[in-house]
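Marked as duplicate of an earlier ticket. Keeping the data here for the record.
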Amino acid sequence: MDIHNIVLLGEAGSGKTEIAANIALLLAEKDEKPVYLIDMDQTKCLFRARDFSSLLEKRQVNMAENQELWDSPLVPMGVSTLLKDEGVRCVFDAGGNAAGAAMMGQFAGLLAGKTTRYYYVINPCRAFSGTVGEIRESLDAIMVSARVPAGRLEVIANPYMGGYTTAELIAGYYRRLEQDLAKLDLSIKCLAVSKTFSSRVRKQMNVPMLELDTFVDKLYV
């Protein structure tokens, strides 16, 4: 099936912005259709996809227009037009928590078709994402706000603890998250891991991986 839209959801600090950027880059490298990364995050004042727009645009990923309005509490211009255009691919970086996810919910009617994939990013190292109860609470709230169709959500695991991250930490938190999600009748679609650690993680576990280029450090170079 030809996928038109990819929506990244998750709590703030889950790493969904890095993952959204990397998915957009992968699509731009292998796809003839124009790729748009649409930053729907109006709730976070720190690390956002729009902060490294110049890096992405150099690699053929399109960003929303009207940069002077990016930090205003407004929906990016042209979202409905892009959703109706079958000649492009859209990657959405939704805001963290239920309030941020509501920005996606208003487009549920245009996203509801089978050409949309919904991914929920979990960083089990993050505060309030380490137990079954915490995961269920945030997951339920975000799914309702974003109006995700039942049975359409897939999980991306992204264990990361900044400078304390090791291959062993990634593998350990992945396995624990896998067990926790089983209690919610969910499974992990893939493991997101920085290219810095990917080869070492592969020696410890054989799971589908999304290898990431990191961007947050490039903002300050």
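See parent ticket for discussion. The first strand starts at residue 5 and ends at 10.
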